[in-house]
Predict the structure of DUF819 family protein.
Amino acid sequence: MSTSTLISVDNNIGLMAVLCGIVALAICLEQRYKWAAKLTGCILVLLTTLILSNLRIIPEDAPAYGFVGTYLVPMALPLLLFRANIREIAKNSGRLLILFLLSACGTMLGSVIAFFTVGRFIPEVGKFLAMITGSYIGGGINFVAMAENYGASGTMVSTANVADAITMMFFFFALMTIPSMAFFKRHFRHPIEDHLATVEGQNANGKTNAANYWSRKEISLKDIALALGISVVIVAVSTPLADFFSAAIPTGNFFLNFCNALLGSKYLIITLIAVVAATVFHKQLNEIKGAQEFGTYFIYMFFATMSAPVSLRLLVNDAPIFFVCCIIIVGVNIIVTLVFTKLLKFGIEDAMVASNANVGGASTAAALAIAKGWDSLVVPGILVGTLGNVIGNICGILIGTIFGA
């Protein structure tokens, strides 16, 4: 592989330069151009890395990518959870929280339907559904957690990544376009869109919504030290705790298998510790500036590595059935979310952010809300999306246990 790509697999600094450059380019485009803001920086990162990988400029797999998954992703979790005060989630995000939980049920239902319709064509379908269920209730971080939790093979992870990445592109496109489609304009409430009818995607100051949201903020060396320090400490404590529970809890029946997989997941332990800290020390953690920026940047780096293994050849030859499975799950999620949105008389904007917070996670939910100008849904989207990091892993483990992962 190292001789078949322009940048070799062992050129770690070169690959990190490419990844950082891709993220920087995506963020700059998103904050400068209307079309890029509508696509969101996450999609731009995925597409750019996908193109470079398939043009054989960068390898499909490399130690540099492993560094991002091993160190930056676990650190991103606590950083993004600094504001995940459970009391605040319940108090300020009640409507979106209800819809988010119902949307998560849609993902679970979609996984069950996928198992009975196409499951027999997928090897180790339990592991695959565990990864996808976890991923589609909280975002891509849970995908990594479930893949490591069940020891999924490299082939399965690569194939699942291909199917998932292509599905996510269709999914994000759907969420961007559904609110403006005539059918949904007639049959659903659009309270925020109606309020923003005269804005046309850009603010009066000429900047995109993303540029305004991620504007310059006061930050000190102390903030950087505390944000990164607390994050690393949480990760360092969580790893041996998860190993302890994994070794201490026996297996042998459904309940024990579920508890072992649940408490033996370092990502779940990281999330639980971070949420407890954010709830107990919410004032102190809210005073630390830059945590959200660091966490979001690390997630962008993760998105860059996610689409590198996505081979379009593999999609055509080996991954169509995985793609169909993902489409079924995402499709059911959207349908269930829209049905309950209509029944509860919520706005279509709530539906899109709730579904995005499930399938794409907190960062993409925020990116969607920012790009569309739905400022009132940015923080609630982040809060319920980070809650998905907790329940997503639980649901993924539950599905994996039921279907024999």
Q: What stands out?
A: Residues 253 and 401 are 10 Å apart (CA to CA). The chain has a mean pLDDT of 84.
